[in-house]
Amino acid sequence: MKEKIIEMLHIQEALDKSFMEYMGRTKPLTIEEVRKALFDECGEVNHAMKAEWCYWKKSQKPVDRDELKEELADVYHFALTLHRLRCDFKFEESSYLHYKNFFENRDWFETLQYVSDGGISSLYRTIVLTEKLGFTFDEMYEAYIAKNKVNYERMKEGY
What separation in angstroms does the CA of 86 have from each of 2, 6, 70, 97? Predict the structure, then answer.
């Protein structure tokens, strides 16, 4: 896992630089900006899970696992950026194991709330959230890589 996370951190750095150039931006990203983006994407994960908590709507569609995976891939993008801004390219598997243990008796929603705060451990918490939502890290690695390609295509198309 550690090797793939470090690879993802480098891939995310390149994407962030590309977006900065695309937007003609010269000032660096701030942690606060990325925290807001992460918070927004966590809301999209919650919305993708609406069938799990929407008790008042008979016509609520079941959770679309592909949509959920794509939204979670977006969370990874911003969690990776935050991690890189705060911790450079360091990843401690012991920290991931700590958060896995911490969230053992918590559900996906409580874990999502912790991710959405944009704290220093957002990336570790995102990996735990992945498992809470029933995905493997390897599945999310593939989803992240696929969404990363989409993001580059969006820039080419004038997103």
Answer: 17, 14, 25, 19
The two tokens of residue 90 are 């360091």
Selection from 36, 125, 20 nearest residue 72 by Cα: 125
Q: What is residue 155's predicted lDDT score, i.e. its pLDDT?
A: 84
Total residue length of the chain = 159
Give the whole-angstrom CA distance, residue 98 versus residue 108. 17
Residue 157 has pLDDT above 90, yes or no: no
DSSP per-residue letters across the chain: -HHHHHHHHHHHHHHHHHHHHHTT--SPP-HHHHHHHHHHHHHHHHHHTGGGT-TT-TTPPPP-HHHHHHHHHHHHHHHHHHHHHHHTT---HHHHHHHHHHTTTS-HHHHHHHHHTT-TTHHHHHHHHHHHTT--HHHHHHHHHHHHHHHHHHHHTT-
- Does the structure show a pLDDT above 90 at 113? yes
Q: Which amino acid is at 157?
A: E
Mean pLDDT of 66-86: 97
Among 61, 81, 80, residue whose Cα is nearest residue 130: 80
